[in-house]
């Protein structure tokens, strides 16, 4: 097993999964950057090469190489070629822009998802809940990081921690200042071997990455005066840490859509799901039914109406994505059938 890949997360299980590729003379590598279809892969922590992917035609967007993937590389003289992607342990997927139903892979084989939320402006809890759903659905463990704690007072931090914990039941929430290094030791203890940093634009993700890496590995930029973030990171990038393990920095997002994430919604809103188990009726809509534990919790102040509305909105998105996926699958099947039929007629093998 290549010992120089261990700092990147390579282990015995990956080696076993790679055995057939190794027998074919291919090399293992980890995808470090994907930018407009161009790949950069790590053959070891200090060695990266540019590569192109030659995979099966028609592969879904989610199946294309993503940052964090372990891949098989054919080191040809005219440039490295990725010929295979090892089965993923986890995958962070967001819905694609527009009305398309396919997902967009953000990072693969991640243990921990750090969700950066800036303390310098009021947190949008519904957006935080969306990041949490995407994080839970990936199979990784989400951690909420309230960044820039040095620019607000202690009372504001306490209020922000309380609100974030309400939106993230069962999730570790930390207040951190990457500038003063306050809270960074606790954050280092919370991350896994592979950690993705996600969040809205201007959340201080790149500064956070620099603090964890102990060096200026990512460019940083001040937040605009109107409070909106600047896009410092333009592509997802894997950064090896000096002490071992890797970080994956991602571009800032104005918003994030959930994609086929029913399990993620259930985990993000585990408090509502638990309350629903106590409702008198199994098909309770949590509106006007008698014996509804959810509306009782709202009346008692234990649950906010805002959180229930956010829960319902995410469920509607998941339902819509499911219908779109089913419709797209039917359309693709009909197209393949039409092509096969036309091909058969052209060669005297039409269906009779």
TrEMBL record:
Residues 331-352 are annotated as: Disordered. Coiled coil: none annotated. It is found in: Cytoplasm. The keyword Ion transport does not apply. Gene3D superfamilies: P-loop containing nucleotide triphosphate hydrolases, Probable gtpase engc, domain 3. It comes from the Bacteria. Residues 108-254 form the EngC GTPase domain. Zn(2+) binds at residues 279, 284, 286, 292. Its EC number is 3.6.1.-. GTP binds at residues 147-150, 199-207. Binds 1 zinc ion per subunit. Its main location: cytoplasm. CDD domains: YjeQ_EngC. Its cofactor is Zn(2+). Residues 100-256 form the CP-type G domain. One of several proteins that assist in the late maturation steps of the functional core of the 30S ribosomal subunit. Helps release RbfA from mature subunits. May play a role in the assembly of ribosomal proteins into the subunit. Circularly permuted GTPase that catalyzes slow GTP hydrolysis, GTPase activity is stimulated by the 30S ribosomal subunit. NCBIfam families: ribosome small subunit-dependent GTPase A. HAMAP family: GTPase_RsgA. Monomer. Associates with 30S ribosomal subunit, binds 16S rRNA. This is Small ribosomal subunit biogenesis GTPase RsgA. It comes from Luteipulveratus flavus.
